């Protein structure tokens, strides 16, 4: 059965290994299946929930497109567009925010994490952004949404909003509740400096992540400095329950080599970290270096990147406008 795929990435800086292994790697596989209709969105309206420098934001939008292409997404097979160019997203978000419940939003753990201790000072957009995310997805009748594990709760909210809209307005199956597509293993890549924290663009220390634009030497250095513990590598997965950094590094290795955690554990059983880190760096360089070189090449071709966004806008705008128009009719406008 053909799937309608939708997913977004925030243009908030260098995309990293977590974005790649948790989401973009999956986008590429879905894009390569000719049965699927894929839409990949640069979600700049989400990015501004935390203050952005306008000049950097504009560059980051192009860099995100360049990263999609460098990772293997083919703009001829998928729609790639910039969220803010399709006004229906903001509009549908407002319509849906009148359906969603405050209690539902209050349960969102990502807001709690991102707002930190000073919730009163967080933007209202940061609080309500899962509703905009629901609008993004529902406008395209998306059936499947490939995301990292951290977005699972937002997708559940999206399903609740769709269902409530359909019930409130008695329009069965008008908004389609999408299925999350989350990698079964290694769906949450952790910081290289702290195995209990998600690898993230906004983390201050650049040593906490592998950026997709990092070159060979930078990658090797970051893996050398990645936090580990004093024990040798384990001989079974059960020994990893409290060894967060070891588990994360073995997970990264397994994901990159498309093997299971068990297989990787067997490969490095009892070895010390320096041997393992050498192999991990090698695998990372093999995967990331070509992507990094391609991003750096594409980023100079602004015309090419802008053309992709304009083509994508034209296609996405048509679909989204039709859906929002139907929402107007249903809601009595
Ligand atoms: N560490 C991660 N492990 C697995 N998947 C991840 N994703 C992000 N970080 C990890 C997935 O990547 C997709 C795009 O994410 P995003 O850039 O739109 O937003 P994010 O989740 O907020 O990513 P960051 O890096 O943490 O950005 P900042 O620091 O700007 O907030 C999503 O599918 C996400 O699940």
Structure report:
This protein is mainly α and 333 residues long. The chain folds into two domains: 3-186 and 301-331, HUPs (Rossmann fold); 206-297, Tyrosyl-Transfer RNA Synthetase. The protein has helices at 17-32, 44-47, 54-71, 88-97, 102-106, 109-115, 124-138, 152-168, 216-225, 244-256, 261-268, 273-298, 302-331; strands at residues 4-9, 37-42, 78-82, 144-146, 179-181. Strands 1-2-3 form a three-stranded parallel sheet. The protein has a two-stranded parallel sheet with strand order 4-5. Helix 1 links the parallel strand 1 (4-9) and strand 2. Helix 9 runs antiparallel to helix 12 and helix 10 (244-256) packs across helix 12. The radius of gyration is 21 Å and the shape is globular. The mean pLDDT is 95. The structure holds adenosine-5'-tetraphosphate. Residues 9-10, 12, 18-19, 22-23, 147-148, 150-151, 187-189, 198-202 line the site of adenosine-5'-tetraphosphate.
Which percent band covers the strand fraction? 5-15%
Q: State the total count of DSSP E strands.
A: 5
The assembly state of the depicted protein chains is single chain
State the fourth-level CATH superfamily of the largest domain: HUPs
User: Any idea what the shape is?
Assistant: globular
Uncertain residue ranges = none
Using the 3D structure, state the CATH architecture of the largest domain.
3-Layer(aba) Sandwich
Distance between the termini: 35 Å
Q: And the CATH topology of the largest domain?
A: Rossmann fold
Order of helices and strands: EHEHHEHHHHEHEHHHHH
Radius of gyration: 21 Å
Bound molecules: adenosine-5'-tetraphosphate
CATH class of the largest domain: Alpha Beta
């Amino acid at each position: 059965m053909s799937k309608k795929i939708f997913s977004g990435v925030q243009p908030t800086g260098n995309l990293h290994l977590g974005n790649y292994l948790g989401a973009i790697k999956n986008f590429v596989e879905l894009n390569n299946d000719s049965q699927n209709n894929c839409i990949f969105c640069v979600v700049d309206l989400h990015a501004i929930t935390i203050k952005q420098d306008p000049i950097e934001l504009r560059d980051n939008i192009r860099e995100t497109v360049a990263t999609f292409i460098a990772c293997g997404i083919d703009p001829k097979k998928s729609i790639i567009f910039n969220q803010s160019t399709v006004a229906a997203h903001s509009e549908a978000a407002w319509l849906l925010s009148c359906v969603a419940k405050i209690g539902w939003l209050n349960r969102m753990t990502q807001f709690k994490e991102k707002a930190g201790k000073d919730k009163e000072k967080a933007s209202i957009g940061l609080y309500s952004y899962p509703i905009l995310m629901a609008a993004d997805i529902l406008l395209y009748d998306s059936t499947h949404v490939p995301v990292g594990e951290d977005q699972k709760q937002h997708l559940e909210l999206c399903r609740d909003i769709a269902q409530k809209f359909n019930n409130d307005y008695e329009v069965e199956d008008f908004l389609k509740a999408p299925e999350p597509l989350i990698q079964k293993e290694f769906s949450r890549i952790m910081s290289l400096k702290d195995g209990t924290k998600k690898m993230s663009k906004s983390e201050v220390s650049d040593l906490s992540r592998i950026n997709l634009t990092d070159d060979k030497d930078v990658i090797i250095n970051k893996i050398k400095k990645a936090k580990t513990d004093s024990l040798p590598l384990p001989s079974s997965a059960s020994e990893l329950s409290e060894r967060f950094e070891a588990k994360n590094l073995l997970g990264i290795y397994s994901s990159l080599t498309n093997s299971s955690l068990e297989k990787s554990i067997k490969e490095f059983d009892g070895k010390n970290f320096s041997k393992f880190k050498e192999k991990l760096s090698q695998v990372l360089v093999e995967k990331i270096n070509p992507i990094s070189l391609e991003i750096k090449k594409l980023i100079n071709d602004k015309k090419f990147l802008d053309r992709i966004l304009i083509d994508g806008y034209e296609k996405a705008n048509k679909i989204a406008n039709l859906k929002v128009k139907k929402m107007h009719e249903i809601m009595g406008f």
